[in-house]
Amino acid sequence: MLKHTALNLSGLVVPFVVAAFAIPVTLHGYGPQRYGLLSLAISLLGSFIFLDMGTALGTVRFTAVALREGRSCDVPAICRSSVRMNAVLGIFFGLLFLAGGLTIGPAVAGVPPALEREARSMFVILAPAVPFVTIASAFRGVLEGCERFDLTNSVKIPTTMLLFLVPAAGAWLGFGIPTVMWLLLASRVFAALWFAACVVKLYPGVLALRTAGALSFTGPLLRFVGWVGISYALTPVLIHADKFLISGLLGVSFLAPYTAPYELISRVSAVPTSLAVSIYPKFSRERGAVSTGDDEKLFRVSLRALVMVYLPLCLGVILFARELVGTWLGPQYMEAGAPVLQILMLAFFFNALSHVPYVVVNGMGRPDVKAKLDLALAVFTVGCGWLMIRTVGISGAAAVRAAATAADFLVLFFFARRLMRARFAALAPRSVVLLGGLTATAGIAGLFVQGPAVLRAAYCGIVFSVAVFIYARYHYRDDARILADIVRRLRLPWVAE
User: Fold this and answer.
1) Total structural domains in the chain?
2) Which end of the chain is more exposed for a tag (fewer CB within 10 A), N or C?
């Protein structure tokens, strides 16, 4: 079991390690301005997945329900309906992205005149990637609904690594930005074909030109999209508003000390994202269904596990941010990049926790909650982001993101508790509140802890020791079985059963 756990965790850590080594190579190879443009392109490429308007999430839900009810024969029809819908969405948004990139893209991104030609080429090359990304999400949804996370990991891990390895190789070999974009486009095409091959291996009927009820799930998917689609449409705004505001208000060169820490820290979201993918089928049910004690236990165990994973990481990054940025990116980025890294670490801590109530809210048929919340957060992010960036700089953008993610978690937790009809203590007993509060409080206090590295390490060690004692005293034995089951569900293809 320990061997399997270590291998699965290594599959989550590998892209993080690759990013840590590749980002400095890319930054120093292309310089601050070109790296800012390139990092914006990579961020956009990663967010194209949200342009499926939530159909992949619907695909997961319908597939999971069909298999639970013994209707595996419906899976090919679900897949074909999802693929066709996503192809249409991808082509539409690809054309929209192309038109916007050629007209207002460089101006909105604050691209200097010297880089406008490369920026326009970047938008032209990225546009065809949109339909391949959305189609890939349809096939991925089928695999996740079948709980075949070994197959999804076999695609996601190497293709995520390519997002960082390709630009780094381009910087080392002296490639221009357009060449790097063509290679990244090829990686998205390859990912779509790989996902499709995995689904066809499980359900060869997907390839049938004429299948009974081939489009019978188009209507249910369209109805599911509704609020989910609004939430997904707002997600790119929430992800990229700060970057566009920074480049527009301060200049594209200021993106480097912001996006480099952001891209590195965002890799740690692989843990909560994978956890959410694993437990989503468990919470997929009709609206109004009463949750069981097992649901409540899975909820609180997931929260506790995320807190224990993020506690040492959060404290370590916050306390040693200056040394990390100085060693990683160079002394010239230390003053601007260290505060950004510290604040973004807090933001991604709250973001990690929000994955658990988000799964409950969507799985139990209330996607409107997340959509309305995202609408409010989008207004907050743009408005407060504009004010904070003008007055504080890039650290202000990070602070706005941290505030938005904290609010996102608290609101989603409140609604998840109402939907599950559970007592607060059943989902977040006193020990969970203590552990979460300890992490948040110690992390915020760590922003002001100065002095020798030995003193900061001692502070981190004491806080983590207290957390480990609380967890080991009350929860380890009960959580071990459930966590082991989750880890098995996230198995990698080369892990033997």
Assistant:
1) 1
2) C
